User: Fold 5'-methylthioadenosine/S-adenosylhomocysteine nucleosidase from Melia azedarach.
Amino acid sequence: MAPCGEKSQEVISSIAIIIAMQTEALPLVNRFELKEDEESVFPEGVPWIRYHGTYKDLQINIIWPGKDATLGVDSVGTVSASLATYATIQALKPDLIINAGTAGGFKSKGASIGDVFLISDVAFHDRRIPIPVFDLYGVGLRPAFSTPNLLKELNLKVGKLSTGDSLDMSPQDETSIIANDAAVKDMEGAAVAYVANLLKVPAIFVKAVTDIVDGDKPTAEEFMQNLVAVTAALDQAVTQVLHFINGKSLSEL
Assistant:
């Protein structure tokens, strides 16, 4: 194992953090004094934004898929996340991907507003293909990169993540989410995991709970009400994760 701080292939030197919403990204951009690219590393015309800088021995890149050119809202969801993750890996060749963001949580799985989860496994809940083997492909279950030492060091909850392209939850989605044994649900994670797995880049997932899906408040209302406060908890957790990763190899996580 290479000693801490030594520039070798053993030590993690480049991290790409994929974040879906500008509100989630900006606290980290400001905390680490990251700069927006003047000349984009991405294809001409796409809205994806890269903020970058250094923290101790780490090259930090935060990738935000940007705003929809027509409607001006954050480009959330699996399609934007997949494309941005693919382009990020091609352009930057990071040692590790962190998908950070907010999520809905299930109180039946011990989630409360403001909790931050380190994800153990990811799967989809809205790709229903009821044909043998295609059904498993649709669910797309994948483990996150294992980080036992990181988990021991930080006070984060552990749980499974279920991903779909809708903020609300249909009865069919609910059945799939329960089958996925998910503690939290989002709109990007399993898509990021798919691309990272495809291109053999380790990925971890840090998700902060903005709303209780199996609670009594409307999801959209609760999400907007808690977004800013919970983003602060996410910012704190990701900062702790980066501090822990600095100087370590993947096998030390």
Remarks:
- Confidence is low (pLDDT under 50) at residues 1-8.
- The helical segments are 22-31, 78-92, 134-139, 148-153, 171-179, 189-198, 219-245.
